[in-house]
Known about the structure:
Elements: H1 16-23, E1 27-29, E2 31-32, E3 37-40, H2 46-54, H3 56-62, H4 69-79, E4 86-91, E5 97-107, E6 112-119, H5 128-142, E7 148-154, H6 158-166, E8 170-181, E9 184-194, H7 195-200, E10 216-218
Parallel strand pairs: 1-10, 6-7
Antiparallel strand pairs: 2-3, 3-4, 4-5, 5-6, 7-9, 8-9
Amino acid sequence: MIENVAETATGCVAGDETEDAHADIRRVTCWRGRAVALAPLDVDDAELVHAWRADPVAAHEVCVWPRTLSAVRERIERDRDEHDRDDFLVLLPDGTPIGHIALTDQDMVDGTAEIMLVLDPDHRGQGHGADAVDALVDLAFGELPMHRVQAVTHTTNTAALGVLARSGFVQEGVRRSPCLHRGRRYDVAVLALLREEWQALTRPRSWDIPAAGQGLASAPPSDARA
């Protein structure tokens, strides 16, 4: 599920000290966007993910009930052993983590997967969501044998729908009333990007973007699989 990547909010959900501490960690990145990088998600990142998912906007748009920190940590640890998903932190050039993006439900036979994104409230509306989405679909089509990447979000989430459209996603239909939030049911839009549509995009691909930033260490593309 894609959250409202253009929604703005005040305050750092993880706290200034937590964000500074995580920014000081030298992470090994495995993939790049125009102004962000992707690094494999680790169990030690549970506190960040827990804070991002607990944000009211993200909880609504991703359509999840916020979990306890211990539950998030257990879920991350369990997901590391799953072969049908890849989870990443979205990092700024200085190494600051600003979000969680994942390619889930990967079916290597049919070549299908779904994209999920949650951003820190302080870093929405700055183009980082679109950058991360473009980077992940480049991974899906450039390094993995995907033919179709799907994204799902509320039909009222115009910001996320706009980001997905700019990344080449096409709305295929609407699932009626599958999501209950605060006593109200919501429709969700189903969008997808096909391999031939990705190939027709004229933007630079992730492997054409030069490395930048001082807080990041790079790893070969072959290390992209978590």
